[in-house]
Design brief:
The chain is mainly α and 195 residues long. It has helices at residues 14-34, 37-69, 73-95, 104-131, 136-152, 162-170, 173-189. Helix 2 (37-69) runs antiparallel to helix 3 (73-95), helix 2 packs antiparallel against helix 5 and helix 5 (136-152) packs antiparallel against helix 7. It starts with 13 loop residues before the first helix and ends in a 6-residue tail after the last helix. It binds fe (ii) ion (2 copies). One fe (ii) ion (FE2) binds next to helix 1, helix 2 and helix 4.
Length: 195
Amino acid sequence: MKTPAAEAPASEDVIDLLIKQHAQIRDLFLAVAMSGGLERRKAFDRLVRLLAVHETAEEQIVHPLARRTLFGGEGIVEDRLTEEGMAKAILAELENMDTDDPRFLGVLNQLRGDVLTHARAEERYEFVGLRAQFSETERRGLCAALRAAEAVAPIHPHPGIESAAKNLLAGPAMALADRVRDLIRDAMKRPKSGG
Ligand SMILES: [Fe+2]
Ligand SMILES: [Fe+2]
């Protein structure tokens, strides 16, 4: 049965999807901390992929819109970008570390604190105000762009494509973020009247 456009399911709302990703990020931090050896490596790879997709989508979709439309948007976005920049620096440090390195959990915990504080600030200062700014068509289009970005960087790769996903990860998270950025830009250039 087809869902009418006016009653699009929650998963079609880009803000709902971003909030869901915040919860997934929280769970993945726990999974990395609670595991060891190869399992920790795999969980950390999933976390890096999800963070790359999620933060890049926010940089391309959420922050520009917040800057333009929210009261005090400039300052709100500057604060969020500062937080993201700090998290990226810690993430780069972790990526250069073996997941079994005795220092790994300490740095991971620092990143976790920063990322979760950042996510709460986004939900409170950006998402609430922004939900009203998206039209139904825009929400669907932006959500589709985010899904396409996820497909480029599979968060839960099928065992058969694990090696392909590994190749994608061979470069730093920055390279992945570049690809995601291009995809989202393409999706946002499409005419908005099409849906
Ligand atoms: Fe963010
Ligand atoms: Fe976020």
